[in-house]
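call fold(seq) -> tokens
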Amino acid sequence: MLQYDPTITAIAVATNDALVEHLWRFDTATTNGADPVAHIAVALCHAAEQFNTTADRVGELLDRIGGETVRGRGVLAGTASIMSRRLESDMMHLTRQLERLDAHRAALLTLYHVWRSHRRVTAPTADRHLLVHPYDPTGGMVRLTIDAIGTIDTADNGGPYDPLGAPSVVSAEPSTWLVTPDHVAAAAFGLPTYGTVLGAITLDAGGWRPTPFAHVEQHTTTRDGVGTLGIAHTEDAACAELLAWWSRHLTHHHARHTHQIVARAAVPDWTGNST
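ret:
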């Protein structure tokens, strides 16, 4: 089953932050100075390593206990008794590891909140990630990249660093983001490929408009007559609708790749034409 790093998953569930890596590791290089964020980042690295190790251990125990219970079921059916000291021992180990997992998760999230409250924006926010389903990493993430049509204010205003916070729109034009699903999102929606732009979401007066298109290289030529899906109130809902549209059309047309829909269905490109 496709999944994320346990640390990334725990942070997503607790905060709705969509991280593709341990961003705090970039702050660990300045521990020889007076920067307190660097020391927080180092502690967070250790906490993440501890949590991941414990989560892996719990997974191994669950797998082993699962195998033991299947075998025990067969023994019970054949002899009407179960003599499994290993199963009893594994259950005791699992209880202890679950307690450790809870403690390590609490420490991880505490340090993450502290680090996140101190981290400042140092680069333009024209490339970010978003959970398709809020607080639920099983639905995957999408990468949102700024479209040339929209203008985003990427200046650092001195506020706290937010790896997912949408910067303010300063252009009179709607803010438009290109949407690219990751491997988990592709699997969750039954898409055969990932890492490819599958459309865009655009903010207007009614909300977020998802637009599927097959020819991303043409998306900036015009905006007249572009076919869109229903209006969504949030970015994540618009992205979910976009991926669901592709899933429905891939299934309906029995296509294994998104480009095959171009030859079998009316898929709008960004020029407003249907292919």
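Residues 149-162, 164-174, 220-226, 258-275 have pLDDT under 50 and may be disordered.
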